[in-house]
Write a structure and sequence with these properties.
The structure is a single chain. The chain is mainly beta. It is built from two helices and eight strands, in the order E-E-E-E-E-E-H-E-E-H. The two termini are about 25 Å apart.
Length: about 160
């Protein structure tokens, strides 16, 4: 378990009884939100972005920015695609390690799979209100901003 905070950025991480690394991250979106459809039939909505969550000191004592690669799925992805670089948000979810081939070698990347996405509403209330009224990303039980790991999706 750990807690780090600097200004509006924070990282809270805990490991559950199954060894799954869960957390809550707070910070600024530092990349454009990439929205696409993936899966065999290209029907699964996905949004990806990088979140700046703080700084740490390297071995020379210099401050280095900490970034986390975030992924949102389904209706949450459809909502998140409307947010822009620089906006501050809070996300909860779990860390997963994915592998991909890069230049013939396997590379591991830790990603944060978002289960909830909470913009700082006081700053972005207009966009949140518009998207809530559209209702495009509401779950069947009318709980906004939620997602879950895709069933049967091979990571």
């Amino acid at each position: 378990s750990g807690f780090e905070q600097r200004n509006a950025m924070a990282k809270i991480v805990y490991v559950d009884e199954h060894g799954k690394k869960n957390g809550m991250l707070s910070g600024a979106i530092t990349s454009e939100v990439l929205f696409d459809f993936v899966g065999q039939d290209k029907l699964l909505p996905r949004a990806t972005f990088y979140l700046k969550i703080g700084k740490h000191k390297d071995e020379n004592g210099e401050l280095i920015d900490d970034y986390v690669s975030c992924v949102c799925w389904r209706k949450l992805a459809k909502f998140v695609r409307h947010f822009k670089r620089g906006m501050t948000v809070i996300v909860t979810g779990a860390f997963y390690t994915s592998k991909r081939k890069e230049n013939g070698a396997w590379v591991e990347e830790e990603q944060f799979f978002c289960e909830t996405f909470m913009p700082q509403v006081w700053r972005y209330r207009k966009i949140v209100k518009e998207k809530l009224e559209e209702g495009d990303y509401q779950k069947e039980d009318d709980t906004p901003y939620t997602s879950r790991k895709p069933d049967g999706y091979d990571f």
